[in-house]
Amino acid sequence: MKKTAISLMVVILAFTNFTIAQDSQTDNGSKWQFRLRGIAVTPDESADIQTIGGDVSISTAVVPEFDITYFFNENWSLELILATTKHDVEAVQTAAGNIDLGHVWLLPPTLTGQYHFTGGDFVPYLGAGLNLTLFYGVDEGPTADDVDYDTSVGYALQGGFDYMLNDKWFLNLDVKKLFLSTDATIDATTALGATVGADVDINPWIIGVGVGVKL
Questions:
Q1: Signal sequence: where (predicted)?
Q2: 3-state SS string over 8-57?
Q3: Contact at 8 Å (CB) between 65 and 83?
Q4: How many C-beta atoms lie closer than 10 Å to residue 13's C-beta?
């Protein structure tokens, strides 16, 4: 997984160097774009839980998101997506019943390369890239003594469109799919007499609507 992620990053960086070289021959200035979106993060979750079996349930979060886009030319760009979300977590249908695992905060900076289809006020785009997810602010809930989540590196796919209101301001609709998984360790020694490991796939859909500006 890590080797594949590194290879994809190398491809993105090579593409970036190429487009910068191309852009330097055709454009004398850079183009920056900033968006502020409201996003709904809906996990498409599943888990392989050791010892006690069962599955996982992870709540949807609605939060603001900020992103920064740099255009190498009219069509190609790189976008950095910044947001943080809080999710309630529960192990369900286990041998010990449903177990409240409290909540966890996710910080998932995501970098995507994008192609924009230009030619009018309606500007659709497609993107793909990498996601790094950090887990913090863990509340283990009433049953577990501690819950630990491993940092994750995964892929991201993206599609959406900008609708230009004028030369500077625009509206945006964006949909992303993150392929995100983590190894979780639940210390439930007090309640269950065991420490339980789990492979958790979060794989959220992220749907956002917002406004942006070109500078």
A1: 1-21
A2: HHHHHHHHHHHHHHHHHHHCCCCEEEEEEEEEEEECCCEEEECCCCCEEE
A3: yes
A4: 11
Q: 67, 35 in Cβ contact below 8 A?
A: yes
Give the domain extent around 50.
2-214
Cα(34)–Cα(206) distance, rounded to whole angstroms?
A: 18
- Number of folded domains that form the chain: 1
pLDDT score of 191 more than 60: yes
Amino acid at 46: S
User: For position 31, which CATH number holds?
Assistant: 2.40.160.20
Nearest to 99 by CA among 107, 115, 108, 88: 88
Question: Which tokens go with 194?
Answer: 């065991």
**Tens-digit pLDDT profile for residues 155-182:** 999 999 999 999 999 999 999 999 999 9
Q: What is the Cα–Cα distance from 6 to 77, expressed in whole angstroms?
A: 20
The span from the CA of 182 to the CA of 200, in Å, is 5
Distance of alpha carbon 118 from alpha carbon 149, whole angstroms: 42
Q: What is the pLDDT of residues 105-121, one digit of tens each?
A: 999 999 999 999 988 99
Segment 204-214, tens digit of pLDDT:
999 999 999 99
For residues 198 and 47, the answer to whether their CB atoms sit within 8 Å is yes
